[in-house]
TrEMBL record:
This protein's record includes keyword DNA-binding: yes
InterPro entries: cNMP-bd_dom, cNMP-bd_dom_sf, HTH_CRP, RmlC-like_jellyroll, WH_DNA-bd_sf
UniProt keyword terms in alphabetical order: DNA-binding, Transcription, Transcription regulation
The Cyclic nucleotide-binding domain, residue ranges: 11-97
Domain of life: Bacteria
Annotated CDD domains: CAP_ED
Annotated HTH crp-type domain residues: 144-212
Tagged with keyword Secreted: no
GO molecular function, one term: DNA binding
GO biological process, one term: regulation of DNA-templated transcription
A Pfam family: HTH_Crp_2
SUPFAM superfamilies: cAMP-binding domain-like, Winged helix' DNA-binding domain
Identification of the protein by name: Crp/Fnr family transcriptional regulator
Amino acid sequence: MELFSLVGCPLFAGVPEGEWESLLSQVGARERYFQRGETLLSAGERTQSMGVVLAGRVTVEHHDFWGNRSVLDSLGPGKVFAETYALLPEEPLQVSVTGAEAGKALFLSPGKLGRDPRLLRNLLLLTAEKNLRLSRRIFHTSSKTIRGRVLSYLSFEAARNGSREFTIPFTRQQLADYLEVDRSALSHELGNMAREGLLRTSRSRFTLLVKEEDRP
């Protein structure tokens, strides 16, 4: 186990490095490297292990009966996934977890985290954070128009980054899936917004603009 990968991992916050190896053994931890596009967990299967992203990024996706994909979340280092299903091992996954870029994940048994109250508390905080992100997505997709959804999401990202220039954690297709809109329609709307002087964009990089007539 490459323990340096756990430095800065919120799940292990407050745990001295000297205790990591013992704790990892207690919770049955194992590392897994993954490639971009590789499926770590598939909808329909059952799991007794939750995951922690150590490096790279994964997306949590839902695929309906006809193959349509919705991106529910994008998770980078320190974020957890499948913890609810791991605590309810008889419940089949309703989502899939896929590598958005090459990286590494740590799988462990959440049922054994109770042996250490620090890990249990950290998991509760991470789960609360995830619930907030999912609630935020519902807010972003509540608008009936593509522009409304884009404005909601980009406004939040600007506020979160404290800057009108920022990079989002999605490709254009992933953003379309996240906002539940057609990719070509999203690109068309972004093009209209750029021509109207509302933003500049290049791949995942955005700059929000204020039109001259809107300046105070």
